[in-house]
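Appendix B. One record, verbatim.
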Amino acid sequence: MNIHEYCPEKVLPLQKAVQKIQNGNRVFVGTGCGEPQALIKAMVEEQTLQDIVIYQMLSSTLANYVHEKAFSRRFSLKLFFISQAMRQAAFEGKIDYIPAYLSQIPGLFLSKRIGLDVALIQVSPPDRFGFCSLGISVDITLAGMQSAKTVIAQINPTMPKTSGDSLVHVDDFDYLVEHDESLVEFLPSSKNQEIVERIAYHVNKLVDDGATLQIGFGHLPNAILPYLHDKKDLGIHTQVITDGFLPLFKKKVINNKKKNYLPNRVVASLCMGSCDLYRYLDNNPMFYFRSSQFVNDPNVIAKNDNLISISSALEVDLTGQICTDSKGHLFYSGIGDQVDFIRGSSMSNQGFSIIVLPSTAQNGEVSRIVPHLSPGAGVATTRGDVDIVVTEYGVAELHGKGIYQRVVELAQIAHPKFRAEIIEQAKKHRYIFTDQLPPSKQDLMFLEKYNSHLELEDGKHFFFRPLLPADEFESRNFFYSLQETTVYYRFFNKRKVFSREMLQEQWANVDYRKNMTIIGLTQVGKHKEIAAIGSYAQVDTDTAEVAFVVKETYQGLGIGSYLLKILDKIAKENKYKRFTATVLSENQTMIHVFKKHYPQAKLARSGGGEVEIMMELE
């Protein structure tokens, strides 16, 4: 369509267009990389404009003016999210931050709770039917445009054309400005690559093939994406598309084939990235852009089975409260999409959420896992919503767990130098028992090599890994679930009580070299339960005593033998030459397992009906 023929009265030069804004107007500006830069510059440079209130979500161009003295006299900035370019201005009190869930911001406009006089947006040129595209910024831009009394659109040939809610007709615009310019690019700054890789390693283990992902705002979630390259058939339902997705699109890792809701489509609301990403999106039918009111609606999100939400945080307290938008009293970012997707993922069939963050800040001087949030810090995600927290030191599963367990889980993934202090503070808060032992100060990343999977003949999967402090409660449940005979065979007495002190001592005595305990877990619903435990403990420099116990349901399926193989391998790595075991003579099943694995084992009967078994580690 030729707009000069179809609606010549609407086409204006930049200066004439911004003169349609009146003093005292409330002006909405399009979001992030889709913002109309030329219109923004022209508005600011129009000296006759006074007392203008500007509403925007992610702001970039205005950062060039916000520190000028004249700007604050003429303009008032109200932002729903503080971009990196605007943080200093926010710290200096030059911005009015509006905390709001992204899913609800469009409703604030449409209901007139926030009235808008003018909307400045950017669109692609109209097609032959007169339809333009909002391109990479549908999010809250669509509602802002629909709610404003006057809409001024910058037509930019560089804006990609996207499908979904992005199509708007030139009849819906009051004024049009033709201006060709490069779009704003969002190129994430580099992070500590070792920390990124370690966090990504843990996240990778949590993401199964065929899952549908949401990746939240922030450099860290985006940086994790390339480390999912080994996955298959991933789907996307997310607020923002960034460059981190691009290699996964091109390698068909993300193909959306397994999505049960809106299959074969990437559902998104916003795009922030490079020109390469914008070109990939242009006229690409795989992408389906909808407003934030739809994309971020928890009820819509929940329609996706296996929806995994991955977002970041500034700090996490020991009860599971998450702060994302402020550093103490200083507003830093925004609530954004986190709460919407965390709640949506919790309602999704087999869905869950992951919060990722480095364990420290300020060059390692400050822990991000804290006894309590910093004074003034806002709680974006409540302790009742949080599911999984990941740092470079591991995974803390918090959902459905009490404060005591949460403290142990989070202390375990804190930086080693802060763990003892965290436990001491938790004791002062009465979160845990006064005799609680702190987790090891070791960096336990080396234990990952001891993780393994075993598929049984019936198709059931077992996951094996070293025992951790956070397993105390689950190991309690395991021992109490055992039948009396199994307990007797393991402990040589009819033990009735497995005290907290005993279980705490069990993991506290594991140094993962001289002493080792491996647990076998099986999936039950959304969580894993301990079904087997195997250990060795030092007798002398060459010898370790070995023992294991398997839940009755899984006995006779090779679990014991598999545990013995794992312990054998680890013991030899740690320079042991032999295993010894004490077994009741009537426990022929256990004796058989040892003799099968060590045909040259030497058996000797001792008093009390016990058999001493000596096994050389070849």
